[in-house]
From TrEMBL:
InterPro entries xrefs: Integrase_cat-core, RNaseH-like_sf, RNaseH_sf, Transpos_IS3, Transposase_IS3/IS150/IS904
Protein name: IS3 family transposase
Record Gene3D superfamilies: Ribonuclease H-like superfamily/Ribonuclease H
Superkingdom, natural source: Bacteria
Region named Disordered: 339-360
Matching Pfam families: rve
Integrase catalytic domain segment(s): 134-300
SUPFAM superfamilies from the UniProt entry: Ribonuclease H-like (SSF53098)
Leader sequence residues: none
Species lineage: Bacteria, Pseudomonadati, Pseudomonadota, Gammaproteobacteria, Methylococcales
Bias (Polar residues): 345-360
Amino acid sequence: MTSLQQRQHLIESVAEATMAGARQDQACAVLGLSSRTLQRWQAGENLGEDRRPLRQYMPPHALTEAERTHILTVVNSVEFADCPPSQIVPRLADQGIYLGSESTIYRILKVARQLKHRRSERPSQPRTKPKALSATAPNQLYSWDITYLPTAIKGQFYYLYLFLDIFSRQIVGWQVFAEESSHYASELLRDIVGREGLQPGQVILHSDNGSPMKGATMLATLQQLGVMPSLSRPAVSNDNPYSESLFKTLKYRPQYPLKPLADLSVAREWVADLVHWYNHEHRHSAIGFVTPAQRHTGLDEALLNQRKALYEDARRQNPRRWSQNTRNWNRVHTVKLNPDHAEPQNKTTQEINNQEKIAA
């Protein structure tokens, strides 16, 4: 039934009700209509037609085209070309000139597509998200960053350099220096490449946009070693979540020094103990609660299978104690860095990303 047929049916229903003795307004209320709507329908008015006037209303006080052109000529003159309307209006007032309000000049500039950087300064540029990366085995994708450690002198710090294997979460290299330097970072990377036996083109190294990360010495070292660089967007810490999460885990340890570190040797000794705990004792939540060292050496799969068999056996012995499936001890086979939103992710990967935001 079309809308016109429905309308006619409602009109006939109201007419039938009124002929039977009902009041028209009550009959309309039962049908969900107003009396005025029924009257318009009975008069044959087409409510679907827009009866508003088609002419464009022009305010009598609107600026003429000549006035708009004159305002654009003035604001683009040598005197005002580098000034916003908020500066142009008072300067014109000091000269005894009124062309229009500040908002009027803004609207004219917007129509002329000049409401952008009007000076010779470099405009802001959009930054695209780093390329989505993933790792399916150790020594494929690294992340590194630098964090501060307190010293006995206020305002001065020691700098902890940490290189992390994203797949296994193992700290593959670290050192504490008294300053930030691209040279120190490149020497540490050379040591890691030698110890891990990395081949050219094997590993991607991700970092933020700090000066040591993109310094000429570091970039030259990456090229010589065949390590492919990957950089975060400026001032976007979420692009390097694994290193940020690692620093939070280390600094929230009970062993974190409450007092400043006495000297560089004390700082290095403390970091050495912390790295040993993290690599060999810490059960990492995002990789199935195995240690990074176990996952880095490939021992985690057998350990996870053993846990899975243990839980399945416990369920068989006492099935009434298990309302759902046993705990998920499946191995995480792929770890992603800065995945695309449109890229499908399985449940395990989503859990990893959520856990990484909390702690390593």
